[in-house]
Amino acid sequence: MGHMKKVIGLWLMVYGLWFMAGEVLAHEGIVDLTGGDVSCKGVSIYKDGHYNVSGRCDGLVYPYETTYNKYVLWGKTTTGGTMTRIAEVDRGYFSGNIASAFDAMYITAEQNSLTRKASMNQIVSGRVTPFDFDKSKVTTVTETTTATPTKTTTVASTTSNATAGTVVGKIVSSLLVVILVVVAIAIGASLLFRNRGSVSA
């Protein structure tokens, strides 16, 4: 009988731990609160026995009313459904924590940012979408590289063109020099023969 009690106790303890782990995962995720022209985005992460909630809002008007000039973020607990204060929304930003598991979130306009009871001035509401760690949904992006001409190639072709032009220029210059030398020799020879002819006469 005592052995059976131990087995049942162990089973209840394992079930309780599994249930708590399930609760943790159920309230970790992306915070998405909307209402009217106001939108709030954030994240909820379970750490050190608390849900740490942080994010920012866009579209909040300061003040909401003359006396209601503060905004407060609330979590509605799963056990009892009580509204628990998480943090003040200061200039659109919020960061705070809540110990109890919650299934809904709200932002209200308040007269006092430290109030423990939510007013009826609800601005936005929403829930936490659990993180999706399904690796089968991960898409891989293939990188494509395009070949671009490098300056080295251009310089090399320019250099080879310049070298060919230089060689052709040298050949042409050498031919001109040879032609001039031949012409000069021919002129010199004809003048020499003329002078000899006039002397012998």
* Mean pLDDT over all positions: 76
Q: How can the largest sheet be summarized?
A: 8 strands, antiparallel
| Global shape | rod-shaped
The secondary-structure element order is HEEEEEEEEH
Distance between termini? 160 Å
H/I helix tally: 2
Rg, Cα atoms, Å: 45 Å
Q: Uncertain spans, ≥5 residues at pLDDT below 50?
A: 10-25, 152-159
| Structural domains: how many | 2
Strands of the biggest beta sheet: in what spatial order?
Answer: 5-4-7-8-1-2-3-6
| Fold-level CATH name of the largest domain | Immunoglobulin-like
Strand composition percent: 25-35%
Helix content: 25-40%
The helix-and-strand class reads alpha+beta
- CATH class category label of the largest domain: Mainly Beta
CATH architecture level-2 label of the largest domain = Sandwich
By DSSP, the count of extended strands is 8
